[in-house]
Amino acid sequence: MVLELLFNPFSLKKKPWEMFIGGFFYSIVALMLSYLVFREIAGILMVFLIVLSTLPMVYTAIKNEEELDLRYDKEWFLLKEHTKVLIFLMFLFLGITVALMFAYLILPQSVTNIIFDLQRTAIINVNSSIQSSVTGGVTKLELLGKIMFNNIKVLFFCLLFSLLYGAGAIFILTWNASVIATAIGALVKTEIAKASSVIGFTSISSYFGITTFSFFRYMIHGFFEIAAYFIAGLAGGIISIALIKHNLKERRVLVDSLDLILISLAMLLVAALIEVFITPILFG
């Protein structure tokens, strides 16, 4: 009960940046405990411990949003309030991602091989799928469709997990944060190795540049994807809480949740368009 009480869930909409600190701190603690206690399953246990510490805050935030649906009937006002929750959730995600990326970069290779083994396997599978599509002569429109299909599957599970567990989508999103952190960390190490082989050493400025390049390589489209998943998770959580409290008969709850789902689908389309048509130009 100590970690989840470090931050007040009722003030996070006013100070969303605090969740960056929270996500960073929770991630470091979870990483250390998972490695020291259950080293064999450190990768998935780390994700579970991060979720365990953040779940009370996320659930409280979603519960408050469901209550707003019952008090107000102006959809624009509700969407404005939901945006505040989305901002603090994005700060939480960034805190987790930066913490795990930082750990991947500074920890010895022998340690990261254990902690991030599952995440690296997931990255290899994704990259293999994308590479097979590219080498197989797939057009950009076909690649766009494939990416959209995969992203919609993730969105569906975010919606389903939140519907079943209230704030269950936080598990999928924390797992995604750990995978993205691993991918960025691996890219940073690869680019530094290339620079070192040419220059002979790597300055602080080039190290910072490589890290920034690697971060935006994944996050320029990932930002929209993660926001879409959080929005869908918020919609599922609102429906879940409304079911428990027997408030689902209220039309406003269903309309609000449907609007959130449609918005999340639109953001997924934007993310896919950026990933297929813009990211290769900027970072190809």
Description:
This protein has one domain. It has 284 residues and is mostly helical.
Describe the secondary structure blueprint for this structure:
Blueprint: H1 18-37, H2 42-71, H3 75-106, H4 109-115, H5 117-135, H6 140-165, H7 169-199, H8 204-244, H9 251-283
Helix pairs in contact: 1-2, 1-3, 2-3, 2-7, 2-8, 3-7, 3-8, 5-7, 6-7, 6-8, 6-9, 7-8, 8-9
Task: Provide a short characterization of the protein structure.
The chain is mainly alpha-helical and 284 residues long.
Which descriptors apply to this entry?
9 helices
Q: If you average the pLDDT, what whole number results?
A: 85
Share in helix: over 70%
Note poorly predicted spans.
none
Rg calc: 20 Å
**What would you call the structural class?**
mainly alpha
The biggest beta sheet reads: none
Residues in β-strands, percent? under 5%
Oligomer type: single chain
Distance between the termini: 46 Å
List how many beta strands DSSP finds. Answer: 0
